[in-house]
Structures are given as structure tokens and as C-alpha cells.
Amino acid sequence: MNTDYCNFAILRTSFFFAAIIAFDIASSQNVFNADDFRTTALPAFERKFVTYATEALQNDSVADLFTRNIHRGSGRRGQGRSQGQAGLSHDDLKQMLNRLKVKVDTKYSNTVGALMRVKEEFERHVQHPSLGPSSGPQQPCCYTGPGVPPGLAPGLRYEGRYRDQVNVTRECVAKTQAASSTPFTMKDEDVVSLMKGNFQNNTDILWQYLATVDGHYVQFPTKDRYCDRGHTTSPLTQRWMVDKLLQSKPLNLVIIVDASVKMNSRVSGKIPPVTHLVMAKDAVRRVAKELAFNDRVSVVVANGSTVTPPGCGDRLMTATPRNVGIISSFLLPLAPSVFPNPDLGQAFQTAYSLLRGEKAAKNVKDTYDVIILLTNGEFVVTNEKKLLAEVKAGQNDLDNKVTHLVYLIQSGSVTPALDTMVKLADLNNQRNSATAWQGESGPVGPVGLLKKLQALVGFFYGDEVAKFYRFFPGLTAAGDMDRVSAYSPRRDPNVGLIITYVVPVYSGTKEPSSLYGAAAIDVSLTSLFDDVIHFQWKLQSYSFIVERNRGLVLVHPKLENPAKQTETDPVFTALEFLEPTFSPEQRRRILMANVSVSSFDAEIVPGRTTYRTGQELLDSEKSPATVLYCRLPDTDYVLGIVIFRSEMTSPSAPVENDVTLGFKGDALYHHQLLAQNKPPEGVCADSGDVRVSDKVTVKFSPEIFTDPEVYIHSKEPTEEIANMTGFLNHEAAPPLTIRPEVLTSVIGDLRIISSMALSRLWQDTSAGGIVERFIGTPSGVFAAYPGISLPNAFDGKKYGWYRESLALPGSLWVSPRLSLTTGERRVSLSTTVGQLPNIFGVTGITVPKRSFAGLFYNTVELCLGSDYTCHLLTDDGYFLDVLHAAPPAQRHVTSVYPWLANVLIRHHVMMPIWCTSLSKGRHSLTYILHVPQTNGVTHEAPVQDKCRQFLLYPVKASNLLVLVVFNRMSGKCSENNIPPESCSSCQRQPGGTKCARCVASPIPPSVCQCPCYCDVDLNVCQDSYRHMTDATSPLTPCYEEPEMPSLTAPGGANRPLPILPPCDHLCPSFEKQADCEKVSQCEWKTELRYPVCDVITTTTSSPTSTSSTLLKSSRSLTSGPGSTYKFGYTTVAGDHQRGGDDTSSLGSGAVAGIVVVVLAVMAALLLIGYYKLIRPRVFIRLLETESAAGVQEACNSAQYHSKTDSLDLNVPAVSPSGIFAAAPVSTGMTSSRP
């Protein structure tokens, strides 16, 4: 009886199954059952993904190689990370800082020494022109030869140091337009030889200059810099620039401009007409242009009231080019007022208020405080007593040291205000009886200047005013007359930030009267401080440089490399913003540092590899650290290092005779593929790149080289490639271009990365859709398989896969990534090698998009139907361009599904993160998704609209999320980006989208904005960012993925790329069936629900193999006991859902409609008999099987329970909808983010 019953059930199973499908298709269109996904399908994908990633990455096996090397190295020194590392004492830390200080000081001393040698030889030439060999014909800097475009002087070639075309074989000359017609010839070849020697012997030196005060100019190397229509515009040729070298203090300067009606007086005989006010405005612009960056200035316009440039409040402007432009724009529309008399009392009150502001800020301890008055004096002073009282009050507040300089435009014999002008200039020093102040017995301030200039001089009035600095005493001590002045870092369009060092040149004795000109050298800030920028100690410890006078930071791991090119002048940041955990007293101690080492302990958020990853730092856990600091000799710079207590262990140092690899490496140096006349076997070309199919290649980070910036932007010499190759092959010692302090770590890493063991491990696990393998270590060693020749600028440590993996040790990091070998966007998986505290690096793989989609679709087959749309996201809310071919790259959930973003933000699942890019002057908005690790999140129970139902499910131990929504096409869903479901700032614009609301303004927590940016509040007057210490200012630096440099760009290859055969593409890299089937060894796996391209196999793969894990259809994982699926039909969506050229699948809308109608009729006939013949629990079991064997197994189970209702199917309890309140947000390491 039971056998007949089960046979009958087997025969009719397909009919019943079809009936239920039809029923479910009809009924489920308005029901979103999240449990169908999160109880079986998505956990199955999660298990398969983790299994695949673990087997494919082989991080445990790689970590084992490093660990075995540590143990094996106990008998040899310098073989990597030895056991029993000793803790660092405080003296060890002081020695570490002192070694770094010596390196930086040596660079500075060598640069200044080179400058002084040029100065001394130039002075010898000037004072004894007959000595020395004569130089050859002069090459013009500002080339204007016939038929040759300006700037294209003969002999130019690319030089990596300058990132530009220059002629490094000789000097060039130029002169100003106003210079004497007398030709200037550098007759002494010794001066030029010194310049050439400096260039060859000191890679930190960029441009070298000589200039005379009468406008002649020499430059090495040759290039059209500071040129305008054949003449030089170098400030070094200006008398004011050279004179300022002798000034011992910077300026705080306020210029008062009389704008009363009388200043509209015209100068007779001038065409076009010139008024006194126009002359005064021109003088202000001339003065402002001649100020140094450490000077401060402002303008007060005096008419019936007073006006100053907007936005500065009670402070002066730093004299940067940006602020000089602001002053010029402020004066441009200025016209005389209708008031007959300027209110000088209020004008001087405002001027002294500005000077008081600088004193209160204590920016610079010792300055010249100066007020300049520009007027014609053709007015009546109505209240001289009040005016002088304002001056006296201001002098009392400023220690009676403010100097008044009055420049009087005289157009007639009568100047009504002359007596008052005399008193303002004399400040009661009573040089004659007319200058005495009534009721004052002694001087109010220092003796000033009153200079009367006839109006007929016109614009020469500005020339005289611009010489005001000569009024102040210069340097008098003999040693100080040769003082080297450093001009604040400024932007060079090619090199980034540079510093100019200048020293005066004399024609006789060292005194101002014999000042002849100046010698100068430009130095790259990056080259000068590259030992600080590339300081390496373990993973997190770091170093910094801060300027003492204003407390601004020049170098810090939160800042961009100073070599990075910017579009605007640099703006530096205060120490309190970059180091908010330092107390005010600790910051004060740093700025007051002397040359000896001092220290303090602090709690700091780690660290070098955590900064600039996009990780939120505001609430991050702090770690104890020791901060050591000292002033660099003869400079205003303070050097500091931060060593975290967890990293206070010392690696063993290499001995002199143990600095080789120790064995013949199996890896190739990456440029070895290009350095030989006959490339190694297996070398091929792919999309302009060069790679080798069966070898690992090694590339070093630029920071391990002695001159990183020169290495990045230069061709690697053939002999240097040969040295690197010999080093890897155990045929030579390490090249001298590698920094000695990192050599121990580099060799320790190379013993693994260049070994046969790693090559075999990677080659044996190359299946499973993997097209690339790579690894990066903290020492700067990067390896790739298949091998690839990379540009010098490539640095694996700068990319997100490395930084993010180190920030979240042990997690799986998924990200879109440009392929090293093809340039196509693919999916990368990465994770750390080892666990804290022994992390050896980060290893990763690259997988084609379709292969990764196959891993998902062949596990979660419900997403292949026409009811649901599934997406893969990363935990920053961006969609992976994997499951759908149509969407543009870098789409965010706020722009794709704004209604969903609003829901997630309201329930604090999607949290905003503001970061700050100081190099760009921007705050940027990003997001982080904190999704509960238990069941994910789904729509709230009251939501009836199927288009607003969803499931967001986290893949544990990774940053990957799965989003499931109703199919937008078949469900006729619209996103309706209108309130309350809208997100603002979503209109994509070149260079980014501006935020509607910025971090500094109050933003309600429920406001939704697409990722956007807003400008940092720049205080242009102080040339610094405003509110950088407020709670509203984000502490997190922004992360930007570096662009992949081109191999054919400067610094890419050591010579033009050879003609090579094209590379064979790996089968998984084909995204389309037609392309796959063109290759004989590849086949389109049509037996899979979501076909992919793979290598033709003759034997069945093991179920646990990597290839099987990725490609095998996983129905056994998505059905069985405990499953809650309702769908077992085989219809799939069209190509708009699945992508590729898969023509073997069904899913047309018309066919599906017919099937639904037919199956519905069958269901009506069969359902009655079904419910009478077969128990409901048995049918549920039948629904969960897909084969006759499964049906037979269910029947056997039914026979056992035929007389009882106690059949237990182990269906797990499922939590209800509205899971926001049911599951707390996890913040542990198992979450997608900490």
C-alpha cells in the first residue's frame, strides 16, 4: 500500500510542483518574503564566498611561509622578523629621532653649502672680473629666436627631477625690461661649473639663480621660467627683494588711503588723466607685491568712515599672492567719496586695532609694526586732539613701537593738513618745535618719515612708496650679512611645493651700500624632507614636520605628499587639528623646542596605515604612544616622531656580510622584462603593458629608494635594473639606491616573495576564475602573478586594497579595481597575511566581473528570476558593477534608491562620514553601513508597497553587502526622488558635486545627500583654515584611490616598449559567450544557471577545489532541510538582468505569461486531489527537492510518519519584519566595519 502510494506521488510530483509554481507566481507579486533569502540562499552564498576567498587567497599558507622564515632565521641575522625582539628603551627612541634629524640636517646643510659656494664664486667674479676662464656664448632663458616658439630653447630634454623639459648642459641669461642696455655676460666659467656640479652631486637642488639689482639674471638649468615677452620677471632682479634680505624682522603693515573728495584732483599733463587717488591705489599694489610671505598687511580706506577688505575682522592678511590679489580687487572700484575730509581719527583707530589683533595672536614674537598714510593733505583736520589721542592709545597698547610713514602728494604750495602730518610722522620726538604734541612731554613712538612728492611724478609716486622698507635698519653684524633667508613653501606647477633659499651678493665689503644682487636655490619640499615623509617604523608609527612661528604642519601622514600638484597656493594646517589629542601645553612645548630631544606620552589614534583610508577617526580607539621632538638646527622647523607602545620592539639589524638574499630567487625584477635585448620566454604585451605568464615579478615601493621623487619621475637606468636583477638572483649585494634603514625588512620579505615556495603556491591555486595574484608588505615589496612590468610611480601601499585590509585585519576586503594586466575594471579580494601583532602584509586576487557574478547567481538562483533584482554593494554604499552590466561605475545607493537611503539613514543603519582633504581644501561626505550581522535589515512591517520592500544582508567578515528589491521593470517601480524620499546633491558634475549642506552647518540627522563635497572655510586673511579645532570639523583625512600610471609615461619604462607578441587571455576573463568560444581551450559553461567561461576540463574537479567552489551550480546549498524557498522554476531573466551573451536561458515575458495561464488551469484540476492524497507536511518536503531521488527520500520519511502528525522538518524560527528594532548594530570585528 505504501509503495503504491509513493509511486503515485512520484508520477504526479511534476504536475503538483508546476501547480504550486503557478500559484506562487500569481500570489507572490505583492509579497516580499525576506526569509526566502536570509535563512538559506544568502547564508549559502556567504559560506561559499568565504570558502572560495579563503582557498583562493591562501593567506594562511602565505603567513606560514613568513612564520617559518622567522624561525629559520634564528641562526642568521637580518633574515626578517626575528623572535625575541627586544623592547625599545627611551634612549633607543632618542637615537631614532637623532638619526632622522641628522639625515634632514645633512640635506639642508648640503643645500645651503652649495648655495654659499655659488655666492662666493659669484662675488669673486664681480670683484675681480679678470680672473677665471671665460664662458662661451650666452643662451637666453626667455628664448625668442626666429621660427622657434617661445620657451622651446635648443637642447631641451625631459628630466625627472623637474618633471619638465630642460637643458641641463648649460646656464641661460635674461634681463628685465627696465634693465640697462649694457650687456651682462657671465665671463667666469667657474660659477657655471659650480652650478653644474651642484646639479650632479645634490639631487635635492632644482633651480639655481644669480641676479643683480639692476635687473640682470642667470639661471641653471636652461628653461623659460619667469619670462614675459622676452624679459625676465624674476623677483630676484628687483631691488626691493634683495634689500629685504638684510631685514632682520618681518612686517605688520597697515596702509591708510585717503579717499576724500580732494583725492580726485588730477595731475596736469598726464594722458590719460591721473588722479591722486589712482596714484595712491597704484602705490598700495606696488607695496603689497613686494612683501614676503611672513609679512602681514591690510588696507584702511578713509573717507567719511573707514572701510577694510572684507572677511578679515580685526586681523591682518598674510602677504600671499592670493591675498595680494584680494587687496587689488578691493581697491579696483574705489573712487573718491563726497566727504571733504577723511576721518583720520577713526582710520588710525582701525589701523591700531588691526595691529593689536596680531599682538594678541602672538604669531611672530618680533616684528616691525608700521602704518603708512597716503594722502595729499588738501583737507582741514577738524579734531586734531582726538586724532592724536587715538594714536597715543594705540601706541600704549603696542609698547610704543609703531612707526608712521607719511607720503604726501603735493600739487600746490598750500597743504592745509601739513602740520598734522608732521606730528603724525614725528610722534612727539620733537625734532623741531612744530612737531611737539600739546600736553605730551616725551616721545609717543619711534621717529617716522614724512616724504613730500610732487604730483607731477605720477606713477613714480608708487616707486617711492615701495621703497619704504629702506627706512628700517638692516643687519649690521658681519656674520648676519651673509644670512640665508628661506621663503615659505610655494606651489610649482610641476614639482609641487618648493622652498627658495636666498643669500645677498656684494660687490665689495659686506655692507648695504655694496649690495650687488643675490644668489638663490630652489629645493623641492618633498626631496628636502623625504626621510620624514617616508619614515617607516612597523605599521602605524610616523613622523611630522611643523613650522614654529605659526604652528603650521608641513609634513604629516594625514596630509598629501608635498610633491602632489595642486591647482591653488598651499594652505597649511595648524598642529591642533592634525593632532587633536595633544594638550595645549604639549603643543606649546613642541613649538618652543630646541635642538635637543624632548618627549611626552600621549593617547593617539593609530596611525600611518589607518590615516587616509576613509575610516572614521573621531570615535576610534586611541593607543598609548611616545612623542619625541626637536628643532632642526639653523631652521624654524620642528621634527617629531610618534612611536606607538605596541610597536616598541627592535628588529635585528643586518651585519655587513649578510645583506644578500641568501638564495637564487625565483621571481623577476619587474623592469627586467624590458631591459634585455631578448625578453625572457613568456613575455607578452597586453593593452600597452608588458607581462610574463609563468613568473612572479617584484616591484619596490618608491619610498624604499634614497631619492623617491627622482625615481618616480625618471627612467630607471639599465645598469640599475641589472643591479636589482643580480640582487634577486643572489649574484650581487643590494643596490646603493635602497635605503639602508629598510634593507633588513626588505630582505626578510624577499626571502618569501622571491622564493620558489610562493611561486608554486600561487601556480597551484591559479584556477577558480583568478586572473591575478598580488601581495604587498609594509617594507614596500610588491609582487604580482602573472608577472607585470609596472611604472616607477606604482606603489601598492597607496591603494585601498592594502590600506583598508590593514585597517581591518583578518577581514575580507572586496573592491572594484583596475586590472594590472588589462586595465579593465574587475573585482579584487584582499586580506591581511597574519594577525595582529604579527601582520606580514596584504595579499589579494583579481577576479573577472562575470566570474564573481557566477559565484553569486549560481548560489542565489532566486535572483535570476523576474521577481527580484539583486545587487552587491560595499559597506560605503557603492554598487559593485558586477551583477548588472548597464549601470555606470561608482553609483551610490543615495542616487539609485533614494527612498532606501532615507530609510537607512532614519534608522541609523547608514551613517554619514565627513572627511577633510587639506590639499584640496574640501570636506567630503561619504557613508558607512552598519548592518546587523544576524539577519540584516529589511523593510518595516507596515510597508505594503512592494516597490519599497527590500532586504539588505551583510556577508560576514567582509565589507560586502547583498541588496534585494522587487524587480523594478516587471514591478513597474519608480524611485520618485521627491520628498520625503529624496536625496539632495545628486547631480553629477565635473570635479564632484557640491553639498547642499556642509558639515560646519547644523544638519538634521535624517537629511539625505549623495556623496558630495563642500569647501573648507578658508580664512584668507590668515591663510589658514577656519574652525579647524571645532567639533564640527571632521578629523578624518579623505582617501582617494591613486590613478594607475602609464608604463609609457615618464618613469614608466627604461626605454621604448619592445615589439612583443600579444598575451593570451585567461578563459575566466571573457565576459561574453562569443569571445569565450573563439578560444580553443575555453568553454562556455552552459550547464550552470549563470554560465561563465572556463578552461575545458577532461576530469571532474573535486568538490572542494577552488574552481568548483567558484563555478559549480549550488542547488544543493540552496535547498534542503530548513529551506523556506517558494520558487523552484527554471525561468530566468533576460540579458538586462544577467548580462553577457547567454542565449541558452529562458525568461521571455510573453512565454512566462503563457506558462502562468496553463499552469493555473492545471492547478485548479489538481489541487483538490493533492490535498486529499498527500499530507501537507510531505508536500512541503517535496517542494524542497528537485530530483526523483529527493521525492523517494521524502516518501520514505512519510512512510515512517504515516500514522502520526509529528513530522519535524527543522524549519528555523524566523524573526518578523521590521528588523530594525530586533537586531542591534554590531561594532565588533565580525562586522563589515569596526
Automatic annotation (TrEMBL):
Domain of life: Eukaryota
Residue ranges the record marks as coiled coil: none
The entry's keywords: Membrane, Transmembrane, Transmembrane helix
Gene Ontology molecular functions: voltage-gated calcium channel activity
SUPFAM superfamilies per the UniProt record, alphabetical: vWA-like (SSF53300)
Domain VWFA: 252-453
One GO term describing the cellular component: voltage-gated calcium channel complex
Region (Disordered): 71-90, 125-146
Chain intervals with Low complexity compositional bias: 129-140
Transmembrane segments: 1150-1171
Protein name listed in UniProt: VWFA domain-containing protein
Organism: Littorina saxatilis
